[in-house]
Amino acid sequence: MTYDLYIGDRTFSSWSLRGWLMLKSFGIPFKSHILGLYSGTLEADLAPFAPARQVPVLKTPKGHMIFDTLAIAETLAQAHPKAGLWPEDPARRGAARSLVAQMHSGFSALRTHCPMNLQNAWEEFEVSENLYADLAYLETLWNYAFKMSGDQDWLFGAYSLADVFFAPVAARIACYKLPVSQQAQQYVDKHLAHQDFRQWRAMGLTKHYDPFPYNMPCASVPWPGPR
To answer: Is the peptide bond before 51 cis (omega within 30 degrees of 0)?
Structure first.
C-alpha cells in the first residue's frame, strides 16, 4: 500500500515540503517523483494529473489523485487514523485544524516577500509593515497552541499536521532572520533540527542552480540550522 507523491524542487517548494513531511514523518509508505517546477516543464509534467496546476500531487494506492495539501492532509488522516497525524484530544485537534487552515489561506506578505530557500540565509533583510503584521499574527497562533499544550516542544504536544504546515514558515524565519519571540525562535530551531526536515534539505542541496532563484539584495550567509 504505497502512495506516489509528485513534488517540486526541494530547496524552494514549500508546499512540496508539506506534502512530503505528511508521509515521511508519520511512517506512511510512499515514493517521491520530481516534476519540473523550475525547469519550465511543470505544465507538461502535470498534464496527466489534470486539473492539478501545482505541486504536490498525491496518487493514492487506489489511483485517486489528490492535488491540494489540505486535501492531502485530510485524506491521509482518514486513511491512517492510528498514525497520529492530528492530535488525539478533540480540543487540540480542532485547534490544530484551525491553525492549518489559517496557514493554508493566509500570510500573503510572508509568502510574497520571503520565498522559501533552504540553501542559505540572508543578512539584514528588510521587514515590511505587512510582513510585521503577518509575524505578529503568527505569534498569536503559536502562543495559542503552546498555551493549550502546556508549552511543549511542538504546537500541540506530539508532532502533528499543524507542525508540518508550519515547517516552511520556520524555514522562512530562519532564512531571512525574521524577528520573533524567544519561544517562537525555539520552535523554529526545533524544526531545523528535525531529522526529516534535515533529510529533505540535504536532498535538495544535491541540485545546483545557475542562475539561483529568488536572489535577494542582501548578504548571503550560511544556513543557521544543523549542518
So the answer is: yes
Strand order in the sheet with 3-7: 30-34, 3-7, 57-59, 65-66
DSSP states along 42-65:
HHHHHGGGTT--SS-EEE-TT--E
Q: What is the pLDDT of residues 200-213, one digit of tens each?
A: 999 999 999 988 88
**What amino acid is encoded at 20 in this protein?**
W
Please list, in sequence order, all residues whose beta carbon lies within 8 angstroms of the beta carbon of residue 38, skipping any fewer than 6 positions away.
8, 9, 12, 209, 213
> Torsions phi, psi of 81, nearest 5?
-65, -20
Q: Per the domain annotation, does 190 fall within a domain?
A: yes
Let me know: does 164 contact 191? Beta carbons within 8 Å.
no
**Shared domain check, 132 and 62:** no
Answer yes or no: do 124 and 177 share one domain.
yes
Instruction: Output the nine-digit C-alpha cell for 18.
Output: 508539506
Is the C-alpha dihedral spanning 132, 138, 141, 146 positive or negative?
negative
Supply φ then ψ for residue 15, to 5 degrees. -70, -35
Is residue 102 situated within a structural domain? yes
Name the residue type at position 46: L
- Asked whether the whole model's pTM tops 0.85, one would answer yes
Q: pLDDT-derived band of residue 194, with 50, 70 and 90 as boundaries?
A: very high
pLDDT greater than 80 at residue 151? no
